[in-house]
Each structure stands twice: as C-alpha cells, then as structure tokens.
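Before the break, one more example. Copy the sequence into your notebook; we will annotate it together after we see the structure.
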Amino acid sequence: MVSLADPRCKASKETIEKSLTAHWDDDLLFMLEQSYHFYLYYQKLTQNCDKKIENITLEYLSQINAGEAEKECLRALKKKAPKNAVSIDIENYAFQIWGTNLMRIPGISDAALLRLIAELGHDFTDKFEFYKAFCCWANIAPDNKISGGKRLSSKIPKRKNPVGQILRFSANSLKANKTPLGFYFRRIQAKSGYIPAIIATANKLGRIIYTEVKTKTEFDESFICMNEEERLKRKLIKTQKELEKIQNQLKNAPEEESYIEDSEFFGEILF
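Here is what the structure looks like once it is written out:
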C-alpha cells in the first residue's frame, strides 16, 4: 500500500508504513477490496475505449492520407499525467492529420489534442478564411459593438462551443507556466483580471493553432516571445507622458479662490 501513495506526499515511506499499521476491521477491508476491483474494471474499460478511438483514427487516416508518405513527427517531450492519461499515440496521429505537431504548443495536452481532432477534423482551416473568423466561431473573441466609431461593448457572447471550451481549459493551465504564453496570461491578468486573461490567452492559442495548420509549420516560441526590455521601455515612456500631462494640468489649474472669514459678511448674505 505504501507504493500506491501519491507522489506529492511529503512523508517518507517509513512514516506512511507506520501509519498504515493498525487493527483493520473486516468490513473496511472488504470495502477497500471492492473499491480496488472497481478501479481495475474502469481502467480496463478506459483502455478499451482508447483502442476503439485508435481504430477509428486509423480508419480516418486511411481516408484522408491515402498514398501520402509519412513525415517525421517532432515530439513535444511533455510529461504526461500520471493518472487517466491517453494510452494511444495521439501526438503522432494528430501530426499525420494536420501535418504539424500541435502538442508542442504550451498548454495543449494529449487529452486536449484528442478532443480537438474529434471537433475540428483535418480540413477546418478551409472553412475559415482568416484566423479571426475561426476564433469568432470558437467563441473566444469579443463581440465588439461599434456605433459612430465608438466601441459600445465588447462582451463575449453567451453561447457554448466545444472548441472554445477546450482552448479555455488549455489557457487556464498556463497561469503558472514559465513560457511566453504564461507571461502573457499573467500580464493580462494583472491588467484586466482572471477571466479576461483566460479569454485572451485562449484567443492567442486559437490563432497559433489555425496558423500552424494552415501553413504546416511547427511551433516557434521566438515568434510570440516579446522582448521584455522593449516592453518595459515602452511602459516607461507611456508613464512619463502621463506624468507630464498631469504636471501641465497642475500648472494651468486656476488658483483657489480666497474665502472671506468675516462672520458679519456671511451674516449679511444669509439673512
């Protein structure tokens, strides 16, 4: 039982072993045995489901990639989840479908990749002329209402889209990620809040995915990496301009009117 302990436990194996030493009731041991058998049963069902998905994927590949030569897939080298991970090589299958490995994008897991294949298909970029149309369809772009050149509102429409939900979950996983996308998430969060940061990062993920599949190129972190020094310089220049504006307002402000503290004068006005 010590070997089944969660790897995040800070206690040593000896400490866990001592804590398990006790007088266990027969009914509790029976319940534990039943739960363990249920766990094994559901794990077997999950593996059967993954095999069925793999068979469907191979059948789909035979229809869209008939006669095409296989390309080498550049692996993402990401750590898979220790529990309930996808047991099939979905990364390689997605590469054969789209011609690029979307798993290399930060925040895109094997489970998210599997769901994107099911929702989008191999030719989704042909259905949208630009990435903006794709992000609008996925409901990860604000619905800007403009009248007379002035933006009245920019709320996200209240409608559900499976692709948009996948991208939002992927964006949420970047909140502590030490990549340019993670820095982008935290910068938007500090500026506008948590929910706008999820929407903005999901929108950026949608743009990256559309562009990669459309151009058949691999993810390059340098294309989205913002020079931190240049960003701080622009922020300093903007702050200096705002400070100068406030100083000019103080110089041009009218002097405060002097108030007469004569009680008789106020008495004449009041009465």
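The longest helix spans residues 26-64. The first strand starts at residue 143 and ends at 147. Try to locate both features in your own notes.
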